Amino acid sequence: MSEKTTIYDIAKELNISAATVSRALNNNPKISESTIKLVMDTAAKMNYKQNRLALALRSGKSGNIGVIVPRINTNFFGSVIRGIEEELHPNKYNVIICQTHEDESREIENINTLLDAQVDGIMISITNESKKNEKIIHRVLEKNVPLIFFDRKKNIDGVSSITIDDFKAGYIATKHLIDQGCKKIAHLCGDQSLEIYENRFKGYQKALLDNGITFDETYVIQSKSNIEDGISVTNKLLQLKTPPDAIFSASDFAALGAIQELKAQGIQIPKDFCVVGFGNEPFTKFMELSISTIDQSPLEMGKMTAKVFLEQMNNTEDFKMEKKIVLNPILHIRKSSSRQNL
Amino acid sequence: MSEKTTIYDIAKELNISAATVSRALNNNPKISESTIKLVMDTAAKMNYKQNRLALALRSGKSGNIGVIVPRINTNFFGSVIRGIEEELHPNKYNVIICQTHEDESREIENINTLLDAQVDGIMISITNESKKNEKIIHRVLEKNVPLIFFDRKKNIDGVSSITIDDFKAGYIATKHLIDQGCKKIAHLCGDQSLEIYENRFKGYQKALLDNGITFDETYVIQSKSNIEDGISVTNKLLQLKTPPDAIFSASDFAALGAIQELKAQGIQIPKDFCVVGFGNEPFTKFMELSISTIDQSPLEMGKMTAKVFLEQMNNTEDFKMEKKIVLNPILHIRKSSSRQNL
DNA sequence: TACGTTTGTGTAATCGATTGCATGATTTGA
DNA sequence: TCAAATCATGCAATCGATTACACAAACGTA
Q: Does the UniProt entry include the keyword Transferase (chains A, B) (predicted)?
């Protein structure tokens, strides 16, 4: 049962005031060298640890940062959080994680919890673009709690964000399929109320346009980010009068489902049909028929997010800083769309 | 720029003392119904939020729980954390995540960080069994900070733990291979200084013994939990005078490497060779040749860990509570070891 | 009426660290 | 040698909520 030593204990021990102890511990130049040394030594001897709660109350800073994600147990978000963590820990910030499970009311709850917990900042990847959570976001801003979006953002003035260039990602993925000789490229798109999915779709359209392929909206079909949906949606595509000869999926999971369905129908990949996914989930690489996909550099994204936060915290200027960082997507070409060796 | 309202603001507004406000907000029976209602209403009107930092200082409880894992971006740990989170959030605890990257000194750092941050408890899956971190663990206990192990534990009196029955897991995995007709079963084992890997190995041995198969130590070979090591280790096994006809790997990643190497050597799975992995990583299910594996119920493990913590927090009795919970491993039989359809 | 109880509130201390202001001691400069 | 400047330190308030103790008012009872 080790009693905690406080600055008062040290003060009593040395017959000086707590104020002097506090100043000495903070290397205040007003305190004489000898006193500082004495206090430091005594503090070490008495195994003194600063009480961060007391500091938090006085300064109004908890030293905690809230991170809100749809879910934590996917490679993408797990890696982003890892990046955030690695950047913030050396700066004495702790990371508090919340999950929304793609549920808006849960998102609101989480933000309130974090505000209650007096976090020094919030980093969030929002669930979707609906108006419902607009209000709570503004409450965060009103409270002057630094807010940063990553990956799934809202466009709000004065709020920084770290995303990847989803338009470009959609573009290069589609362009790659065109380069492989595909002419009828379908797109499994995500919830269009989210900017990321909208941009992937637009990139896809632009690539078609730039390469003289007419856009056909029957080739665009929304799919959830899971295998089952990928299967059923692909099945529908294959029943079209003129079925597609390639799929660009906005999700790796849906792409995997698509591949399973294609195989089930005896279609040869990549000979007769090419597939590109999105996210570079670990399994895309491990599959026997490895899946081409877009890497989103999640680790990097996490680190950038944390860095931008730290910059804003250290920004003592009077003006608000807004940074919109857009990372470069990287296309990994794998077996599911490589025809050069055939 | 919304100024925060405190109980003093409410007190001033109503011309009563802050003490009364505090008591009213906490539904103290000493306060008259009418006052409580008045205070509650005014608090709501003034948008009062309790300052958790002040509460934290006074009570000595931060409301934060530290969770230490080797890494966060794997399915297993991600899911455990998710489980912990889901159980603790409704109880007003926040979860602070730390990663050790399998580095002992990092582990010590993390524990110190958490103690500094005045967490109300620590849940940890340790990096390994070496003596170096023994000291810091005891410091946690001395400080009376509740400590709980999950998955990778140390055996310390009075400390609760939630694990799976790794011995049984090793046993049923091996028994399954024997049932498939395999006679020369190799084991890719993990770091034997970790109890979990030691127990998987022991279960493997016992299953062999119980089924009249002589244990052959040349069939046991240590492998790191990654594909590359799985490949190289399997290559070595195949060069033996009498190569094995099955592998029970203590890691899914090594199992995947093993399968890749087996295929590369033209060996038919499961006809000529069976493989069972460990962990039920998502990819094991997605592979075209899906991999048999042991599920560790990580979500359940996380939830149990949190529950045990909450129980200990609510335990007002004078005695210490120690719970050693052992979850049941579940064998998922998939293509890599299913001979019944051949 | 007088006295003991109950009820509802207020006063002030507490948690631990920080910091503006005051003060006493020492040094500097003329 | 004395005023001014510098230096080192102490005092006390502060952050916001809780709570032991005190106390006044209201009530009940003999």
A: no
